Amino acid sequence: MLLVRCFRPDRIYQSVCHYVAMVMGDQFLTPDFISYDSIYKRSACSVPVLFILSPGSDPTEDLMALGVKFNTAGHKFKFLSLGKGQKKAALTLLHQSLSQGYWLVYQNCHLLVSLMSELEQHLTSAACVHPNFRLWLTTEPCPEFPVGTSQVWKDGMEHLLRLQRVRLYSECSYFESTSGQD
Asked: How far apart are CA 71 and CA 67, in angstroms?
């Protein structure tokens, strides 16, 4: 892998995945299932939901399917891919969605980080937020992303830690049960 890192840094991710699959097994590469229903049920109209994406993932289609399920499809479902020059359109769409109860998806938030702190101010100062309004944000990992926007709610973090602990214990017990079989 050192040679791959030196000569083909663009291939290091695939190389690490291949190594993990060979040494530890495919189960360590498959992501945990995300229940969009449970995310929606735990969400609120005043708190955005942030998806930090791994390469090749995009929750937009799943969110659209969820919108159909909760009767917010069609004109009630808005999305905007952020980038240079999109700040005004993003804020206009936000105010419209807040008052009308639309679901709003901002894609590629890492490309317009300056909007995030302003977005937080608009959400906290909004006088009238429709109860059906939901704000969904997608971003790639980005060190410039504001901490206030990306903080995970306390219950959600405890649930996530509990899931990871269960997974860790089950993996440790798997290794302990197979270690003497060589």
From this structure: 6
Cβ neighbours, 10 Å, residue 31: 7
Residues 115 and 90 sit within 8 Å (Cβ to Cβ): yes
- Hey, where are the domains in the chain? 1-29, 36-151
Phi (first) and psi of residue 56, to 5 degrees: 85, 0
Hey, what CATH class is 36-151 in? Answer: alpha beta
Edge-to-edge strand ranges of the sheet holding 103-107 = 49-52, 134-139, 103-107, 77-81
Residue 150 burial (CB count, 10 A) = 15
The answer to whether the CB of 125 falls within 8 A of the CB of 83 is no
Residue 153: C-alpha distances to residues 39, 150, 156, 157 (Å): 12, 9, 5, 6
How many CB atoms neighbour CB 64 within 10 A?
Answer: 17
Tens of pLDDT along 112-168? 888 888 888 888 887 788 999 999 999 888 777 665 544 444 344 444 444 444 444
